[in-house]
Structure formats: structure tokens, C-alpha cells
Amino acid sequence: MKYPNTGLGQFCLHFGQELKRQSHPDFNSVFLLPRTIPPQFSGDRHIVASSGRRYLPCLNSGYDLWHSTHQDSPYFPDKKTPYLLTIHDLNFLWEKSGMKLSRRLKRLEKRIGKATAVVFSSEFTRQTVLSHTSLAENIPSEVIYLGVAPIEEIVPETPKVLPSGPFVFSIGVIKPSKNFAALVEWMAHMPDLNLVISGIADQPYADMIRKRIVELKMEDRIWLTGEVGENEKAWYYRECEAFVLASKLEGFGIPAIEAMRLGKPVFVSNLTSLPEVAGEEAFYWDNFDPEDMKRVFEEGMNIFAGDSDKKDRLRRHALRFSWAETVKNYKVLYQNLLKS
Question: Which residues of 285-314 are buried (b: 16+ CB within 10 A; e: fewer)?
């Protein structure tokens, strides 16, 4: 919840809100929250994340089940409490090396070893974990897809950064794994199109992207907006010609599904979880050669324009990923763990 506009922040926010909506007399939810309580949970029963709770799990007692909603959470229950772990991705396998990679793997294995059960956000993530860790056969595990909030219900708000012509939209933390550099190079081959990239842009990679935009003299065609709120994001989705994502690493790929909910054509890389989640209705880049990307985009846009049912199929595919269904599946798992 520290970064509510990131993928993980959105998961925690929408999962918690839907868990409250599906309240049941058999469940009393207690949320672990930062000291600055998110307004969406201000009136809910909660405990505050603290160094004491982080380093003394004995303080986290008295619960029938403890659910860590992501694999990097440093908070654990006491030894008597069943522990459910959700793993979204193992992106560090490609981002780290040497001792740093070894330490991250050992840390993850330790957390898996503590778990009573493990949930993965995609089959791709599950297979990656099985390939790189010793997930014990006696630990129950399953895939539960993430939900995607109904962005079509959000009132769009005109953003501060407005493109000057037709544009494609991309969103994500501006870091190497998201591969925004490929989109910038592609833009040099798309003279009639602009690009808007939204997301936290405080890493050196973002500075490299800005420098390259200047070198290509495309300051009036490519915009890095920084982090945007839900209403501004909704405006970009609604007004864009297409959504594009050249990411090399994704545990799920929420933005692709958000765009589909609005019936927008979606162009993504064919890497990691994206083909699994975006499915047959997306268009895929097999490589990041700018000319090949141009060809795939132009062919895809022609297909989209000539297929009157395409928008409806995109929306139907996206509606498979609802928070109501996600939480319902988790609640079934909660009940099974509480019975065992």
C-alpha cells in the first residue's frame, strides 16, 4: 500500500476492498497497514506494520490464518498460525546476479518453507518457482488469477500532460525490465503516432529514456508523465489508439487487461506471463526490432479496424479477471486451510 498505483499496490487495495465486500460471519478480517492508514481502510479493524511486528513474529499471534499478499512481505505470524503465501513473480531472477540473486532465492525458499499453502498469480509464475526452488510436494499450491478493477466505471479526468495528436499508451514503473526503450526506438519508425508512458520514473533507467528521447528529437512526440491517478489513467486508456507493452518481465500484466476492458487493441511482448493472461485477443511482438514492431502494429490495427466483433471479444476476455472471482477463490482456500 506504500505505492498504491503500482501493480502490487493495486492488488493489495482491490483485494482488501473486495474482501470487505464479501464479508462473512465466519471471517473477521484484520488488515496489516502502514502507519499512514490508507483512507479506504480507515474504519476497518487493523494492526500497524512496525519493526516490532517485523522482527518478533510472536507479536503476530491470536489469528487463525495469516495471509501474506506478496512474496517480499517481511511480516510473519507466530509458529502456530497457518501461513498462506501469495507469489506474484520472480522478476529478480533476471534482475539480480551473483550473491544478490543467491540471497533472494534463499529468502524466498525460506518463506516457502514456512508456508502452509502457496498461491501463484499465473501458471508462468508457478512453473518458474518450481524450476528454481524446492517447493515441497506436501505444500498445497494453486494458481488464482488477479482481478482487474472496472476501469470503465471510473470518471476520466483530463491529465496535465496532453499529447498533441493520436497516441498509444503504456504504463508501469520505468525500469529496465519494462523495456520502454524498445517503445522509444519503435516511435522513430512511426512518424504519425505519439507515445505516452505513465509510471514512477525515479530510477536511472528513466533518465536514460529521457536522454534518448532528446537524441531522437522526439520531445514533442513522447511523454513520460510520471505517476498518475486512476482518473487520469482512465483518460489515457479511453483516448489512446492502442495500448502497448514491450515488457520483458511480468508476473501477470494488469494494464493489458485494463485496456481490453475498454475494447482497446493491445500489443504486448510474447514473454513471461503475457501470452497466458492477454490470450488470443492480443497482438504479440516476437522481438524488439523497430521495423518488425511497426509491421506487427500496422497489421494488428488493420485487423482491429476490419473486425466488428473485436472490441466485444476483448471486453469478454477481460471480464474473466474480476476481483469478485479472485476473492471468492481465495475464500474457498481460506476455508480449506482453516478446516485442515
Answer: beebebeebbebbeebbeebeeeeeebeeb
DSSP labels for 87-133?
E---THHHH--HHHHHHHHHHHHHHHHH-SEEEESSHHHHHHHHHHS
**E strand or H helix at 267:** strand 266-269
Phi, psi of 42 (to 5 degrees): -65, -30
Q: Tell me the sheet residues that pair with 242.
A: 168
Q: Which amino acid is at 253?
A: G
pTM above 0.70, yes or no: yes
Q: Domain 151-318 carries which CATH code?
A: 3.40.50.2000
Q: Name the DSSP letter for residue 211.
A: H
At the topology level of CATH, where does 7-147+322-339 sit? Rossmann fold (3.40.50)
- Location of each CATH 3.40.50.2000 domain in the chain: 7-147+322-339, 151-318
What percent of the chain shows pLDDT beyond 90? 82
Residue 332: strand, helix, or coil = helix
Per-residue pLDDT tens over the stretch 280-328 = 999 999 999 999 999 999 999 999 999 999 999 999 999 999 999 999 9
**Kind and range of the H or E run holding 328:** helix 323-339
Single-letter code of the amino acid located at 58? C
Cα distances (Å, whole numbers) of residue 109 to 57, 80, 102, 105, 130: 18, 19, 11, 6, 11
CA dihedral 104, 108, 109, 111 (to 10 degrees): 140
Please report the DSSP string for 277-311 in residue order. Answer: HHGGGSEEESS--HHHHHHHHHHHHHHHHH-TTHH
C-alpha cell read off for 19: 474482501
Please state, in angstroms and rounded to a whole number, the distance separating the CA atoms of residues 91 and 94: 6
- The alpha carbon torsion through 130, 134, 136, 140 (nearest 10 deg) reads -40
What is the DSSP track for 18-71?
Answer: HHHHT--TT----EEE-SS--GGGTTS-EEE--HHHHH-GGGS-S-S-EEESST
Q: Which of 320, 338, 335 is nearest to 144 (CA)?
A: 320
Residue type, 98: G
